[in-house]
Amino acid sequence: MDATLQVEHITLIGTGLIGASVGLALRATGFTGTITGIDASGTELETAERIGAITATARNPEAHAAAIAGSQIVVLAVPVLAILDWMGRIQPHLSADAMVTDTGSTKAQIAARGVSLFPKQFLPGHPMAGKESGGAALAEANLFQNAPWIFTPLHEPTPLETTWRDLVEKFGAKPIDIDPVRHDELCAWVSHLPQMVSTAMTAVLEDQIGDDEALRAIGGRALREMTRLGASPFSMWRDVAMTNQKPIADTLLALEQRLQHMRENLRTPELREEFLKANRFRARS
């Protein structure tokens, strides 16, 4: 028998891009149980329900408690600080047989809180997928296709956690297990630094170019690619910065030092060495 048949009710706390995409991906796997959505935005809930990502909504504290108590799996798909808050709010209502997972972009603080609140019931997770903009209207069932879905397990897997992992694989994602502290260190390099660089570069261009159409007109593919992440919302990245401050600061310092080195060597062979290092890295990608 398919292990997923034991799950009849999943609650998604957060029905934006990631939460609604999880709901659509669940439906695409053939999941026929109840998917309840909880979101501070009534508009997001309505959109998620309209596109088929959820089958029910919970719109007040009493309905939230009932949905959580009746769920085998609760997925926290909100920004990191909201995840930390919701963990405390759901704990009194969670069934002893249920599990909690999340989709937060940082893991160390979430994992530490999970250990104290949900012994043997929490599997921290992070799907490395998304778009520059959020919202249920942009959700896709195949958003996680071929994307890493990182788990930072805190104990030996329970049968329900194994079921969730199986579902994630059916989404088309590639599960990877990493220590939560190591996760944050790695993501500072591969995800958080690129975002900060794009944001800084885009902000500088806004200051220097602004609405100068002539200068904007000559910006080609390189400019579009380098500034694409500049459209990302502060609301999400604020939480990432606040919960992964030191690793991000370390990567920014390393980049600052490298940029200074390049600026000081624009007319020396050292600049060639920087290009060669960059070429070697890209060749392995």
UniProtKB/TrEMBL annotation:
Listed InterPro entries: 6-PGluconate_DH-like_C_sf, NAD(P)-bd_dom_sf, PDH_C, PDH_N, Preph/Arog_dehydrog, Prephen_DH
PROSITE patterns according to UniProt: PDH_ADH
Pfam families referenced in this protein's UniProt entry, alphabetically: PDH_C, PDH_N
Domain of life according to the entry: Bacteria
One Gene Ontology molecular-function label: prephenate dehydrogenase (NAD+) activity
Alphabetical list of SUPFAM superfamilies matching this protein: 6-phosphogluconate dehydrogenase C-terminal domain-like, NAD(P)-binding Rossmann-fold domains
GO annotation terms (biological process): tyrosine biosynthetic process
Ranges where the Prephenate/arogenate dehydrogenase domain occurs: 8-285
Record keywords: Oxidoreductase
Identification of the protein by name: Prephenate dehydrogenase
